[in-house]
Every structure is written in structure tokens, then in C-alpha cells.
Amino acid sequence: MSYGLLKGKRGIIFGALDENSIAWKTAERVHEEGGSFVLTNAPIAMRMGTINQLAEKTGATVIPADATSIEDLEKLVSESVEVLGGKIDFVLHSIGMSVNVRKGRSYTDQKYDWTAKGWDVSAGSFHKVMQVLYKQDAMNEWGSIVALSYMAAQRVFPDYNDMADNKAFLESIARSFGYFFGRDKNVRVNTISQSPTPTTAGKGVKGFDGFISYAEKMSPLGNASALDCANYTVSLFSDLTQKVTLQNLFHDGGFSNMGVSDAVMQAFEDQQNA
Ligand SMILES: NC(=O)c1ccc[n+]([C@@H]2O[C@H](COP(=O)([O-])OP(=O)(O)OC[C@H]3O[C@@H](n4cnc5c(N)ncnc54)[C@H](O)[C@@H]3O)[C@@H](O)[C@H]2O)c1
Fold it and tell me: What is the pTM of this model?
């Protein structure tokens, strides 16, 4: 269903790799709500993914950019303003990657140049994106910037590895930069802390199947899907949430405030009685 919430708004969406990506679903929903946007991803992901299909479907222009490269980001932002015909109203940062996770190194045996790379891609890039937008004065007043996070920033999920630290840093950047963006440009900055979601990044985490089922059983509303996340993001891009900023917003079916659920208790009781 479309409500026309983003009619006339322009944006940049980072991180649509394939149709499972949260950014992919968000692009589809933003399009349905009347928004126009540039799609961007790392040059290597352009070759691996299917972003051009999404661009065709949504009438978007694709501009490749490595989100850790200031030079790429400067080009991306100035070209986006040109292509879209005006300043930017919304930005989605949907980027995450840990080399330690990818290569199976445990949290207690990190290779620190990999740690630094993961930090730069997953958190530093968010600062870089906002700094470029800020310096180019590319955001419209009452615009909205959203990045995606995970609850391992606050609680221990052992297999989430150094991504937990990256997400804590990402959420802190949202607050710190959000202050300046709010004070100087009336732009809001928030992170959404999303349920485990079966995407390329999600499924790359060891034990993913176990913890997505556990979260499903713990959450009174069940896990939030990628489409649910897209809908929530649309609401944060819309004019209906103009005074929400500096927040980390849990979007997880209630998981983050649970201690234990009947369903999880039952699973243990069944195991004991077996
Ligand atoms: N899937 C989950 O369980 C889950 C849960 C909470 C939060 N998140 C977060 O959601 C966001 C999107 O991930 P997803 O689950 O849709 O997976 P995904 O793998 O589809 O998306 C990750 C994206 O990051 C991009 N990327 C990696 N390095 C980049 C770089 N240098 N420059 C630009 N882009 C780069 C990838 O190409 C890819 O498109 C990430 O921040 C992730 O941590 C995911």
C-alpha cells in the first residue's frame, strides 16, 4: 500500500546488493511512496550484485562509490544533487562488513588490519558520508539520515565478533554528528537496530540460523523482516517524524526488552523431558 509519504523527495540509498538486502527492499518501498533516488554501492558489489535490475525498476541512477573513499563520496554527492535536480532529503547507510567474520577469525584472535578495515567500512564510512554531505551543504532542511545497526552494540552476541564494536561506534557517530546536523541544518540522524535478517551480510555471521530462530521465539511480535525495516525507514524519511533525532531505534518485534518468553522456556522444558 502506498501513502505518498515521500512524494517529491530525493535521496541516496547505499548498500543494495541483491533482492534480499534491506536497502533493496527500502528502495522499492521509497519508490512506491513517490521518492526518487540514486543507488550506490562499492564498485566490486556492482559486478557481483544485480543493482541494475533494481535501478531499472525504480527509475534510479546508479553511481558507484566505495563508502570509505572521500573522493568517491564527494563525486557521489555532487553528482546525485545534479541528477536528482536538487538537494537531498533522505540518505540510507546500509553498509556492514567485517573481514575477521568473513575469514572465520574469532573475537579473541583478531587480525588488527582486518579489524581496522571492518571498522572503516561499517562505521567510519557513516562519518565520511555525513561529513561530505555537511561540507557540500547537500541536505535539505528537515532531511533525514538513517543507518542500520544491531543490538550487539549493547548486549553480548559472541559470534557477532568485531561487528559488535563497529555497531557501537556507528551508533555513537549518529549521535555526535546528529547534533551538528540538527543544530546547523535541521537535519535528523538516527540508527535503526534491526532484527536478524537473512541477507548476505546477516547469513555471513556464524550461528546465524540459531540466533534468528532464538530471536523469533523471544520476540512477542516475532522478528522484523527486511520489508518491515523498509517500512520503518520510510516513516523516518517522511515528514511525520521531523523531531526524532540522535536515537538508536530498536526495530525487533520487542526482543530488546525481553528477559525470557514462554516459547523459549518451553523449548528448554521439552529438551529436559525428552
Ligand atoms: N542482516 C541482518 O541480520 C542485520 C541485522 C541488523 C543490522 N543489519 C545491518 O544492515 C545493513 C545492511 O546489511 P544487509 O543485511 O542488508 O546485508 P547486505 O549484504 O545485503 O548489505 C551490505 C552492503 O554493504 C555493502 N558494502 C560493503 N562494503 C562497502 C563499501 N566499502 N562501500 C560501499 N558499500 C559497501 C555491500 O556491497 C552490501 O550491499 C548493514 O549495516 C548490516 O550490518 C543487518
Answer: 0.98
